[in-house]
Amino acid sequence: FMPFIAFSDTPACGGLLSAPPGGIVTSPNYPGNYPNSANCQWTITVPEGSLVLLTFD
User: Could you report the average pLDDT of every consecutive run of 10 residues in the chain (57 residues)?
Assistant: First the structure.
C-alpha cells in the first residue's frame, strides 16, 4: 500500500481521508474553495486491494 501524499503550506487544509469499500471521498471543504495556490497534504487510505480514482475540476 502506497499512500498519496502532497505537501501543505495552508494549515486549514490537509489530513487523513479514508473510505469504506465502494465509498466516495470528497474534499472536506466542498463546495467551498481553498485559498489561491493552496498546497494541501492529504493521506488517502482505502482497504487493501481497492483502487483509488482521483478527479480534479
Answer: 52 73 74 76 84 80
Closest CA to 40 of 17, 13, 3, 5: 13
21 contact partners, CB below 8 Å, separation of at least 6: 46, 47, 50
pTM: 0.53
Cell 467551498, residue located: 32
- Measure the N-to-C terminal CA separation of the chain; round to a whole number of Å: 26
| Rounded CA separation 14/43 (Å) | 8
> Can you tell me the distance from the alpha carbon of 5 to that of 14, in angstroms, rounded to the nearest whole number?
10
